[in-house]
Design a protein that fits this description.
With about 190 residues, the protein is mainly β. The protein is built from no helices and 18 strands.
Amino acid sequence: PAISPDGKEIAFVSTKDGNAEIYVVSTSGRNLRRLTNHGSIDTSPDWSPDGREIVFSSDRTGKPQIYIMNADGSSQRRLPVDLAYCDSPVWSPKGDRIAFVSRSDSGFDIFVYLPGTGEVLQLTVSQGSNEDPCWSPDGFQLAFSSTRNAGKRDIYTMFWDGSQVLRLTFSGNCSSPSWSPNFRNSSELSCE
């Protein structure tokens, strides 16, 4: 689930109507609204920083791709990204970048889409499977999980352009990193 920037709504995925669709509900549990209504699987919603749009993944073209829609579910459109399998999109705090993962033969890699120019940057290059991108509150770094160390999943950080990769955990069983809201440095990360 993803909480709206104003903290009043939650976007989430439910299969209550048969297949995975995206819904929004107020944090009080009222006003449930279905945003997607497609015969495909719609997952991984994330709010834009201004709360006006939601980015998500959908396999409506036959393979998972990244889509954006207005917060009311209108104007659903696919990002012009030409990659085989895309998932886990997350907006940067300023809204000027969307990080996501794409699968290749050797695993998952992390990419960034720049909405202003339509440019797509590949940040990781098949060193294990790189997943779970999570923006730092200042938008300059991404935390992510990777199996690049002998197949063991650990947490790493990198700058938004893919440079300065730093390994933070060494236990081999970490995923889903999240930053402290009061972020000052990469030591303020947690993982599952």
